[in-house]
Amino acid sequence: RQQVFRLTTGSSALDNLLGGGIESSAITEAFGEFRSGKTQIALTLCITAQMPKTSGGGMGKVAYIDTEGTFRPERIAQIASRFNLNPEAVLENILYARAYTVEHQFQLLTLIAAKMTEEPFALLVVDSIMALFRVDYSGRGELSERQQVLGKMLSRIMKISEQYNIVVYITNQVMADPGGGVSFVPDPKKPIGGHVLAHASTTRLYLRKGRGEQRICKIFDSPCLPEGEATFQIGPGGVEE
Ligand code: GTP
Ligand code: MG
Predict the structure, then answer these.
(1) Where are the beta strands (DSSP E) in the chain?
(2) Complex-level ipTM beyond the 0.90 threshold
(3) Most buried in the list 26, 127, 198, 227, measured by CB within 10 Å?
């Protein structure tokens, strides 16, 4: 069995909060309202995953499932230069796929798992895990079926993570709660996906906006990681100090 490793996020404060970085053979979920930095963390990990393990990297390729169309190759190139890596080489090592349905998302996982038997991978990103479930199971009375399929998908993801010793980073949305008035406002502290997702995620990160480009991360409901927060910036180089 390969040794579990920790992948740097690009911020030492965030790495410290996580006990040295995002661990492999586990699922790490980040949730928070729009623009809280979920995708920017994903894009930064695409680069650090390819760095040597002695620099906090994962020394492997990246698989990226995008359900929202927010992956940006130009941004990857920009973050790669911060770490002194060749942008084209970095992009070539990212197996990118846009998913359009839950079924498609499942098929992509199978395809990715097949690729992982051929080449060393260090990271799997799913940005976001719930978006297509929300669309495909939007009807009343479909919730229990949704949760059942979600559970199946998450156990497939966990199996991939353990089998190939890779870091899994998934993003999640927050619940829209009826406010006092007519409008629905997002409740930043309530991830969707219910107990199925809560149970599957090894570590849950709650992200919120600070001043300007500052972002704050808190470990959500973990029995083994300390309470506390880490502050980082989103800058030209991705996740920064
Ligand atoms: P949703 O997917 O909408 O829920 O948001 P998210 O949590 O994924 O937010 P995301 O990671 O996209 O963060 C958006 C923030 O990142 C923006 O508000 C900017 O502050 C920052 N950002 C995005 N792109 C760039 C860029 O090219 N350069 C810099 N410096 N910052 C950027
Ligand atoms: Mg996003």
Answers:
(1) 6-7, 22-23, 26-31, 61-66, 94-98, 121-127, 167-172, 174-178, 184-191, 203-209, 214-220, 229-235, 238-240
(2) yes
(3) 127
